[in-house]
Amino acid sequence: MSRSLLKALASLFIVSLAAVLAVVMVTKEWGTRDDLPHAPVRGGGVSTPGWHRSALGMLKPYALTESLERGGVQYRADRSVPLGRLADHVDTAGELMADWAGFALDEGVPPVRYVYLCRLVETLLAIERHHDFKSIYQSLDSSKTKGRTFEPRGGYYKPLSLVILLDRPGSDAEWDVPHEIVHSIVEVAGRDVASVLNEGLAELLAPAALYAKGARPGDPLPLDLDVAWRSCEELDRISRPGVLSRLFALDYWSFRDAKVENLYYELSTSLVHLLLTHEHPALEGRFPVLISRLRRYPDTWDAFRKTYPPALVERLWVERVKEWRKLPWKKAFGRNWILHGTDLIARQHIRGGSALLRTEPLGEDGFRLTFSWDELPGEAATAGFVVSDGSPLSSIVFGFENGDLIRAQSLVSEWKLQATLPKPDGLDRMAEWSLEWNPSDEEIVWRIGDEIIHRESGIDPGQHLGLFFESRLEQDEAGVRDIRFRNVELTR
Q1: Which helix (H) or strand (E) holds 169?
Q2: Which of 45, 118, 214, 235 could form a disulfide with 123 if both were Cys (CB 3.0 to 4.6 A apart)?
Q3: Angle 195-211/263-277 helices, nearest 10 degrees?
């Protein structure tokens, strides 16, 4: 046997041994190949690529503090995360896709096999570069190259059957993971689906996965009020003939360009909300037809105009936005308010306060604003009524904080507790909360049930009455605080 042949055999043995060791290392954390079933869907199956393991193996050096497996999906995180609740939202997203979009996965198994939440952008970029996702990690300077103009935050990586997202202060994994799961199901329904449809559906169903489990066509869908307000601001753009064809023609990076500040996301969500909820015979129940045509028509716009009359959709879209202009709410400061039927949901993933005000000032007519709660605000949160001119520097809060009823007032850059008020018996039974405006005395009266909690006079009739929520997340804490104001109603 020649020396060159011996060298070749020795090299082959070393390579084989290294490959076996690599498989053992990854299998120890992620399971065997038999633990990774295919993801069958109606109309065809999606197989898990065999080469994805090297990406998952790259996660090995990072400390995985949380893990869960459910429904064929493995969830991993490198910090303490309530993965069970996250898995619930993923299950709900799949159910909503079946009920609203008419596309169900066989046995409910999504094409995503792994969900990984990481704290470090370096982890995300390492996986992107390892698999040569040049279209994803290239230069952020769009003047030099057409690519990402926003900070990397992860997403759905179809070739890896993987959702990987940054989970750090300011992020919202509970919203983002269902969003990416919807993308993965849409990718099964059709190839290269236009962003206007893909992102609009994902952004609409993400809050539905959080707050509308069991919602069926005909029920109200949660609507991010920022979507409604931005659509109102852009009514002139929406009113231009041919706006739909231009939206569908946007390429991947133009749609996501940071310079437009999420404009196309919000317009797309507004459009898909119309398609799923409008009762016009040409729209109602037609979305599943559109989804079924995505496979037959390689161009999403062709599938869309075979399903809907574009001119009619544009007209109804304008009418819907004009209806939103009549919404009785405006944001004062902060953001993340969601309208769901008669409920209003405040959601904060950063430290700070957020106020939603009635558009009309207190004025000369008396009225009452009422709501109820399923549960009181938790720790590190304050919620209740606010009287404000729209600035956080001149606002008074009447609410609940750390087990107490409080009156607080903003002073410069912080809230100053002015008084702790007596609590009525049975507060935890969540009677109706109300704030009544008496213009003759320029007085507001705060009640819980039939019991008066506080009276205050000398209120400027030019102020606005609304709802307030503050999250006191630590600056280095990743997570979300939210509260649902039930049955919000104004009576005169």
Answers
A1: none
A2: 118
A3: 70
